[in-house]
Amino acid sequence: MDNKNIIEIKNLSKEVNGITILNNINVNFSRGKIYGIIGRNGSGKSMLFKSICGLVNPTQGEISVFGENINGGNFPKDTGIIIEHPGFLPQYSAFKNLKILASINNKINAENIKHAISLVGLDPANTIPVKKYSLGMKQRLGIAQALMEEPKLLILDEPMNGLDADGVTLIRKILLDLKEKSVTILLASHNSDDINELCDFVYKMDNGILTH
Predict the structure, then answer these.
(1) Does the pLDDT value for residue 109 go beyond 60?
(2) Which pLDDT belongs to residue 74?
(3) Are residue 4 and residue 74 in the same domain, yes or no?
(4) Using CB atoms within 10 A of its CB, is residue 43 exposed (0-12), middle (13-18) or buried (19+)?
(5) Rounded to 5 degrees, what are φ and ψ at 43?
(6) Range of 207's domain?
(7) Which of 35, 83, 161, 201 could form a disulfide with 157 if both were Cys (CB 3.0 to 4.6 A apart)?
(8) 69 and 10, same domain (yes or no)
(9) Which of residues 98, 129, 150 is at a domain's end?
(10) Which of left, alpha, beta for 67 (phi over 0: left; psi -120 to 50: alpha)?
(11) Which pLDDT tens digit goes with each residue over 6-58?
């Protein structure tokens, strides 16, 4: 792996029920940059992200993240993700939800979790169950979950969904701060302002084909 390339993708294709979702994608993503992926719903953006995260098996091709080959079931190290709607246990508080998730890798402590919750504008001491959260609050919590272990790679599928103007401003600032710390960010967004303000490079996905 080139020292600057966090992700290397070669000849990646994915077919589902005879339909091509990803079509021979070849691309590298380097350290400390924000990459925008634009395209209509169903163009293949989420499938690309799921493939990079090892959540689906490609039909053909290779994906390398931090120099390690990624296959279905093999989640890349040092990676935070939001793909589709963040899923939480509705009966528990924000803190308890993130504490349960943090126990999987056991890399961070309670203070790290509280910091992540505060960073996105939520109150870590709030004990109300997540089922009573608004869509925007759940989205903020999803972003806190993606950030809490201080990943070197962030994969964010429509992270601004449901956020009010203040929330969007806050999350944009967080992402730019992370870029300054050499975090690599892949961002799918329908909001052209997100793409224009945040991204160093923009790729378009159409019918499973990725173009720069």
Answers:
(1) yes
(2) 84
(3) yes
(4) buried
(5) -80, -15
(6) 1-78+151-212
(7) 83
(8) yes
(9) 150
(10) left
(11) 999 999 999 999 999 999 999 999 999 999 999 988 899 999 999 999 999 99
Same domain? 144 vs 155: no
Predicted pLDDT at 1 = 46
Query: What are the structure tokens assigned to 125, written together?
Result: 């001491």
Q: Give residue for tokens 């994915």.
A: 14
Q: Quick one: 69 and 119 in the same domain?
A: no
What span, in angstroms and rounded, lies between the C-alpha atoms of 94 and 113? 10
User: CATH number for the domain including 19?
Assistant: 3.40.50.300
CB atoms within 10 A of CB 68: 12
Query: How many domains is the chain partitioned into structurally?
Result: 2
Supply the pLDDT for residue 85: 74
Which strands sit side by side in the sheet containing 79-82, from one edge to the other? Answer: 79-82, 153-157, 184-188, 34-38, 201-206, 209-211
- 3-state secondary structure at position 157: strand
**48 three-class SS:** helix
Give me the phi and psi of 162, to 5 degrees please: 80, -5
pTM surpassing 0.70? Answer: yes
